[in-house]
From TrEMBL:
InterPro entries for this protein: AAA+_ATPase, ABC_transporter-like_ATP-bd, ABC_transporter-like_CS, CBS_dom_sf, P-loop_NTPase
Listed GO MF terms: ATP binding; ATP hydrolysis activity
Family membership noted in the UniProt record: Belongs to the ABC transporter superfamily.
Residue ranges occupied by any ABC transporter domain in the UniProt entry: 2-236
Top-level taxon: Bacteria
Entry protein name: ABC transporter ATP-binding protein
GO biological process: quaternary ammonium group transport
Keywords: ATP-binding, Nucleotide-binding, Transport
Length: 315
């Protein structure tokens, strides 16, 4: 969907990104991960031409972005940023309606879309619709920012640290929400973050950047198990690589079916192996029964299997 071929961008002769080769596949959730100043935001802004690139080619849906009229390009791309950028004197509803109104949608269609998005982002409580941004919490404002970016059902959603300023609990619930929306709608999402756990939670495809260059790109499991350089390994927390890998895997794939255990509270098969590890430590046990969301017996998770799989996947 989006392809960078040898793309560079300079500010006052200094490269912000250089010779970028990067692919964001259609329908995938791509996350650009890197430390401050590594060129992530610049990369994102070149996609919707908020920043023009200086050399190389950047393709959007197979077309050179320079050949797509800026207005029509931006209509195809939603953009959500950390500072939200809501219009302060407009209600939530009017903020969300910004792009559909520009596109000349009929009133009834706009109203229906606002309702749909408020429900999608967990803001369906009637009071939000006509509130002003300053009457909302930071987390609610971020939700409205994402709703506004999604309003005209863009082909691509770009998000630059959209949960940056939030407390861990609100951040966690918004991350889950965005993941759910991605799975539901099957659109192409590109998100920028410097938070490793956020990246691992959301990404189908992960791109690690440093000093304006792509250091490695691939699936989260690939990067965790086969980091291409010591930098990538260190970025994922070196000794924490194994635990982070456990956070990507669900209990359901690792249990022994056909076994059961009485007298111990069962865990859910959707639980991550990382959470299960905490449960083993908390309860000081070696085995845990596993049930489905509807309460059916699925089998037993053995601590020794979990430890073995972590060793296998370590680089
Ligand atoms: N408008 C600008 N003028 C001059 N230099 C800039 C401009 N925007 C970015 N840069 C420089 O380009 C480099 C990459 O910046 P960029 O914002 O893309 O990094 P980032 O990885 O998104 O960082 P952060 O996580 O801190 O936002 C930095 O060295 C930055 O100082």
């Amino acid at each position: 969907m989006i392809e960078f071929n040898g793309v560079s961008k300079y500010y006052d002769g200094v490269a912000a990104v250089s010779d970028l080769n990067l692919h964001c596949p259609e329908g995938a959730f791509t996350v650009l991960l890197g430390s401050s100043g590594s060129g992530k935001s610049t990369t994102l802004k070149m996609i919707n031409r908020l920043e023009p690139h200086d050399s190389g080619t950047l393709l959007f849906g197979g077309q050179d972005v320079r050949r797509i009229e800026v207005k029509s390009l931006r209509r195809r791309i939603g953009y959500a940023i950390q500072s939200v950028g809501l219009f302060p004197h407009w209600t939530v509803a009017r903020n969300i309606a910004t792009v559909p109104s520009l596109l000349g949608w009929e009133r009834a269609r706009i109203e229906a879309r606002i309702d749909e998005l408020l429900a999608l982002l967990g803001l369906e409580d009637g009071r939000f619709r006509n509130s002003y941004p300053h009457q909302l919490s930071g987390g609610q404002q971020q939700r409205v920012g994402v709703a506004r970016a999604l309003a005209a059902d863009p082909e691509v959603l770009l998000m630059d640290e959209p949960f940056g300023a939030l407390d861990p609990v609100t951040r966690g619930s918004l991350q889950q929400e965005v993941r759910r929306i991605h799975q539901l709608q099957g659109r192409t999402f590109v998100l920028v973050t410097h938070d490793v756990d956020e990246a691992l939670l959301l990404a189908d495809r992960l791109v690690v950047m440093d000093q304006g260059r792509v250091i490695q790109q691939g699936s989260p499991a690939e990067l965790l198990t086969r980091p291409a350089t010591p930098f990538v390994r260190d970025f994922f927390g070196g000794s924490e690589l194994g635990v982070r890998l456990l956070a990507r895997r669900a209990v359901g794939q690792w249990l022994r079916p056909g076994e059961w255990l009485e007298g111990v509270e069962p865990i859910d098969e959707q639980m991550t192996l990382r959470e299960a590890l905490s449960r083993f430590v908390e309860q000081g046990c070696q085995r845990l029964p596993v049930k489905s969301a509807s309460g059916e017996r699925r089998g037993v998770l053995h601590f020794c299997d979990l430890a073995a799989q972590e060793q296998e996947s370590m680089p």
